[in-house]
Amino acid sequence: MRPIWTLEEARQADQEAVSSGVPYPALLAQAGLQLARFIQARVPEGAVMFLTGPGSNGGDGWVAARHLARRRPVTVIPIAEPRFPGAGDWIAAAKAAGVVVGQNPVSLNGAAVVVDAMYGTGFHGSVMESPAGPWLAALESGGHPVIHVDLPSGVETNTGQYDGPELNTLATLTMGAVKWGLVGYPGAEAAGPIVVADIGLPGHGQASFIDPEWAKRHLPRVPRLGHKYSRGHVVVIGGSRAMPGAPVLAGMAALKAGAGLVELVVPESVLGRVAVVPSLIVHGVPETADGSLQVSDVLSRLAARADALVIGPGLGPTAPTALIEVLAKIPVPAVLDADGIRLYAQAPKAFGANWVLTPHAGEMGVLLGMTSARVNADRRRAVLDAVHATGRTVLLKGMFSIVGSEGGRLMVNSSGSPVLATAGSGDVLSGMTAALLAQGLPPDQALALAVYWHGWAGQIGEREQGLSMTADNLLDYFSPARHALEQEEEPTSVTYWD
Ligand SMILES: NC(=O)C1=CN([C@@H]2O[C@H](COP(=O)(O)OP(=O)(O)OC[C@H]3O[C@@H](n4cnc5c(N)ncnc54)[C@H](O)[C@@H]3O)[C@@H](O)[C@H]2O)[C@@H](O)CC1
Ligand SMILES: Nc1ncnc2c1ncn2[C@@H]1O[C@H](COP(=O)(O)OP(=O)(O)O)[C@@H](O)[C@H]1O
Ligand SMILES: [K+]
């Protein structure tokens, strides 16, 4: 279990620890010690400057400063009057250990690293208007390397809202468990690599990261006596004159993720442009005047043969709503992506059982009737609302993609790479998900495994091709990514420190 906490859950963990007999100062002591160890390991030499705030985030800084002062020059610059529990004693001990207290105005020059212990989970409002504002501006212009304690100061714990500058961030050492703000936007950018320090708090919560060990266990295996039908039959419904390639990408991804048989159902006028890959079976079916798929008996018959459907890749904006209504009556699990989601938003009563939706922030906005900016302002809330509104498993794509399923259970993906932000990469994900559904995984598990595997393929693609990686190249990395999953390799965006 690698939980992700809201503010309320962080406070609850804190209270549980205290009521189980751990005194609060012991938690502060443990947080400060872990912070000192982390700084020492990450930046072993040179002067350390701590910027400390009024609350316990500042307290973590004071305790760490005391430990480090035995080894190297340490200065603490309090940006506000300390009010954390036991402040007087902790500060006296730090001074006795040789910590120098900087007086305003003070320069940050000469610091090998600056530790941001100004605000943590107790922050609310605009950081640039708070006492931390001028310090963040100085850190931005000086380019000093920074380690953040718990959260970058100013990042809102539940959402990741942040109005401060981008800094030269080495890492964020977060206490007990990752907070939602670190995987929200733009908090995730401000946080840099996230490192979780074990401070002895209980480790449960409503949400968790997709676990490498879990992913390995759920990878589909090919039975020795398997045949192509037993490995799962995927039918991809999509394509239009402007976007004939999208269903091909989804179909190839389904094959490469282990489906035994993949068929594409596309408008008949694009058949010649789609029937280019020998491993895919392609059917041209009746279309509308502008070349989008339309409802037909042959389409329904082909869809009903599948173990899982992908509905939407390259479908185009003019496909008729009736398409989704007809497909919803076919009792086959399906992935709705791209224009499939837009159609669904127009006919939201057309619920297919075991359908999953894979919107990016823009498509999520269409589902929820809001802008993509509002979706990204509170991604966790958007997923919970979409699950509530649809009763289906929903994936919100992007860095730290979130899978939400019934009962409000949330899983966050920590694999991935910004090179995945390339046209067609979502089509690849939808095909991969359908292959896993076709092989019998329940919707939430199929989505979680697909997003984790897809993210790993992106990471390996980035390593091999950098910014030049395209969605069709991504298919080549399914196999090395599967190997990474089998080895239980850890994504580097979130690591655990103990
Ligand atoms: N939850 C836990 O069990 C533990 C928490 N610890 C640390 O404690 C932190 C939380 O401590 P606190 O609750 O004291 O919160 P903070 O340390 O984040 O500080 C809250 C203080 O900042 C002030 N403040 C908030 N927003 C402001 C604004 N816009 N302008 C000016 N002042 C503002 C508040 O009035 C309050 O005095 C965590 O982030 C973590 O670093 C650890 O020390 C140990 C264990
Ligand atoms: N910055 C990023 N970091 C990690 N993954 C990303 C990032 N940007 C996009 N992705 C992933 O790439 C895929 C893009 O999907 P989508 O937006 O539907 O693209 P398209 O419609 O072009 O296929 C999603 O899986 C998404 O999570
Ligand atoms: K901080």
Compact summary:
The chain has about 500 residues and is an alpha/beta fold. It has helices spanning about 5-20, 25-40, 55-70, 85-95, 135-140, 180-185, 185-190, 210-220, 245-255, 270-275, 295-305, 320-330, 340-345, 360-370, 370-375, 380-390, 425-440, 445-465, 470-475, 480-485, and strands at about 5, 45-50, 75-80, 100, 110-115, 145-150, 170-175, 180, 195, 205-210, 235, 260-265, 280-285, 310, 335, 355, 395, 400-405, 410, 495. The chain has 2 domains: about 5-205, YjeF N-terminal domain (Rossmann fold, 3-Layer(aba) Sandwich), CATH 3.40.50; about 210-490, Ribokinase (UDP-N-acetylmuramoyl-L-alanine:D-glutamate ligase).
**CATH class designation of the largest domain:** Alpha Beta
Number of domains: 2
- Stretches where pLDDT is under 50 for at least 5 consecutive residues are none
Order of strands in the sheet with most strands = 8-1-10-19-18-17-16-15-14-11-12-13
- Number of continuous helical runs: 20
What fraction of the residues are assigned to beta strands by DSSP?
15-25%
Question: What's the CATH architecture of the largest domain?
Answer: 3-Layer(aba) Sandwich
Q: What would you give as the CATH superfamily of the largest domain? A: Ribokinase
Mean pLDDT across all amino acids: 95
CATH topology of the largest domain: UDP-N-acetylmuramoyl-L-alanine:D-glutamate ligase
Total strand segments: 20
The oligomeric state of the chains shown is: single chain
Summarize the biggest pleated sheet: 12 strands, mixed
